[in-house]
Amino acid sequence: MSDDVAWAAFTDDGPWVLDPDALAWEAEVPAHRAAIAASLPELTRRVALPPGRRLAVTLRRLGWAIGSWRLGKGRAGGPASRADLARRLRVAAEALGPSYIKLGQIVSSGQGLFPDELVEEFSLLRDRVQPEPFAVVRRVVEEDLGRPLDEVFATFERRPLAAASIAQVHLARLVTGEEVVVKVQRPTVADRVRADLRVMSWIAPYLVGRIPVAALANPPALVELFAETIAEELDFRLEADNMIAVGRSFAELGQRGYVVPRPHPDLVTRRVLVMERLQGFAFDDAATMRDAGIDTTEVVRTGMIGFLEGAMFHGVFHGDLHSGNLLVLPDGRTGLLDFGITGRLPEHERQAFLRLLVGASMNDIRTQLGALRDLGALPPDADLPSLVVELGLDQAPVDPTTLTADELTAEIQRVVKALLGSGAKLPKSLMLFVKDLVFLDGAIATLAPDLDLFAEIATIAMYFNERHGARIAAEAGLAGRAWDLDLSALKSSVGIDPDAEGSLTHREVRQRRQVIQRRMGGRGRPGLRRTRRQ
């Protein structure tokens, strides 16, 4: 077993052994992170006039998308109208290039955060990026490594394994014999992103409240989130550092259900990242995994626990979980790929995250709101007791399956209005966290659809109480109180008597969601019995 497995969640026998104190590219990472953070206000500052040519192209593409929609299906309204607008925006994003494709990809993995029509349509952007010609790839690699390609690699596949908006990855073999994956940044993407951010920042305020799919997404805030996310993705030294941080976190927590590929100790630059190659089953190929004897329910459980532990106790977690960034090794461990988007929480935010999750598990509304305030989702001077009343959190939850489309829409609008009125916003860390939770929810549907959610939540809570109970009590401010799991709000929200015993599978949850979707698609249907609010 490789020596570096003692301090990071790497494969047992790696192609090389990492010495964390001897990585030349890592020494300057803190300075690079600080410089990027300092540049963000300027990147998103709304100037009088952004780059003229890029502004003209962007306005033409977006103007055509929105204008043609307004003259067509925009007149009718409803789901079909929103779907048509989402399609037109997706086509415009494809034409505008990498920055807008990347923005669309972030939106596409934000189910529950962004309108369903936008998520569904933008998911088509994940596989529709043309790769750079091999001559361009060779030039970038040779410029950044300072050597001819054949002095570093014995073989280098000309056709990329995958091509995304920021970079593409190629399979290769080093002259020393190791099988690797090489991530290569598109050569013009950094300059294009900077120009596009200025254009986005200029356009975003005009979109507020003007188009239905943007109303809840808050375009200016979305641009700020996008800038914060993509700026770090443009430096692969930061991504390699993220790989080590996440791997170290798992090892220190004793969480060996995840595996992180090793970055190469020397072959990492701003635009080139050489890493260990992992091989396994596609994360959503449940049938093949079961045929190979892998317990897919355990894969889901390990995934959830490892994700929560990293965020709660080390303040670091993979921020872009989706099936393309995960694979399952033959031994059942989950391999994590692509660390360009990684959640990193300062200590005060980490503790706020812990309080948020503990408060949610105990159905403690005020603790949750206080944690959201400390995370930056609410203003520091937010009147939390008044917000509880405005949001209706002092009343019994409503079963959404008993509401008509009009009632559901009115409820959503009421909550959104109250949140926006209180100054609520979506910080990057919270957006990434919720986005990952949504993905893990979908993973249950694929890998363990008959999992008893109530029992699973209790099992995970017991795990955390046994392993981290004292720390949770101290940092969550329980002050001698027991950490008592309270699923009453969750049960009420899905139309189950809070005092009733029983189970709820993910398959049943999906059926209830389908009821809600059908109601949203058929406005004006008579409502069923609405859960009494007290």
Shape: globular
Question: Number of DSSP helices?
Answer: 21
Measured by DSSP, the beta-strand proportion falls in: 5-15%
Radius of gyration over alpha carbons?
24 Å
Tell me the structural class.
alpha+beta
pLDDT averaged over residues: 85
Helix amount: 40-55%
Oligomer: single chain
Strands, total number: 12
The poorly predicted ranges are 522-534
Distance between the termini: 60 Å
Can you summarize the main beta sheet? 6 strands, antiparallel
Describe the protein's architecture and organization.
- There is one protein chain.
- With 534 residues, the protein is an alpha+beta fold.
- Among the domains are: 44-129 and 189-233, no CATH class; 347-521, no CATH class.
- The chain is built from 21 helices and twelve strands.
- It has helices at residues 29-43, 52-71, 79-96, 98-108, 116-122, 134-145, 149-152, 189-207, 212-215, 219-233, 236-252, 286-291, 296-314, 347-361, 365-374, 384-390, 405-421, 428-447, 453-475, 488-493, 506-521; strands at residues 153-156, 162-163, 167-174, 179-185, 258-259, 263-268, 272-276, 281-282, 316-318, 326-328, 334-336, 342-344.
- Strands 1, 2, 3, 4, 6 and 7 form a six-stranded antiparallel beta sheet that branches. It has a four-stranded mixed beta sheet with strand order 5-11-10-8.
- A hairpin with a 5-residue loop joins strand 10 and strand 11.
- Helix 3 (79-96) runs parallel beside helix 5 and helix 17 (405-421) packs across helix 21 (506-521).
- The chain starts with 28 loop residues before the first helix and ends in a 13-residue tail after the last helix.
